[in-house]
Design a protein that fits this description.
Elements lengths: L12 E7 L3 E8 L4 E8 L4 H19 L6 E6 L2 E2 L4 E4 L7 E4 H9 L3 E4 H12 L7
Parallel strand pairs: 1-4, 4-8
Antiparallel strand pairs: 1-2, 2-3, 5-6, 6-7
Helix pairs in contact: 1-2
């Protein structure tokens, strides 16, 4: 998937991936909420396999919206995620500790965010949901 770059898009386009204990779900959406593509995979076991399936989901989403390039890419994951995008601990992903998911994906994806899934949901709600504009 090509990395996000200014001027390469035709409209606000975001790719989002939710990594859970049983599934990895990705969606490509416009700023108005229009869904362009969805990809679902079972959550594998092990850090390397999780990185691979998230990369696969992002690649499939990128192919689905090509030739457009996303303006934003984000991954939400249940667990303790630090500010640099390192998953320190995930209760529903046994054995996955200190996984630097952002660094593992940024080379292929470009600038991206990796957040705790609840933080990602709140951020989205604040930006474009019912809480938009609230202080």
């Amino acid at each position: 998937m090509p990395a996000a770059s200014p001027g390469a898009t035709t409209g606000a386009l975001a790719l989002g991936v939710d990594v859970g204990g049983t599934k990895v779900l990705g969606r490509a959406v416009r700023a108005d909420g229009t869904e362009l593509a969805a990809v679902r995979r079972p959550t594998p076991r092990g850090a390397d396999a999780i990185v691979a399936v998230v990369a696969e989901v992002l690649d499939a989403l990128g192919s689905a919206v090509a030739p457009e390039v996303p303006d934003a890419v984000g991954v939400g994951i249940a667990g303790l995620v630090d500010r640099s995008g390192v998953l320190r601990f995930a209760p529903n992903l046994p054995g996955v500790v200190d996984l630097d998911l952002r660094s593992a994906l940024v080379g292929a994806v470009g600038p991206m965010a990796v957040l705790n899934d609840a933080t990602a949901a709140l951020w989205g709600e604040h930006r474009v949901g019912a809480a938009a504009g609230a202080r």
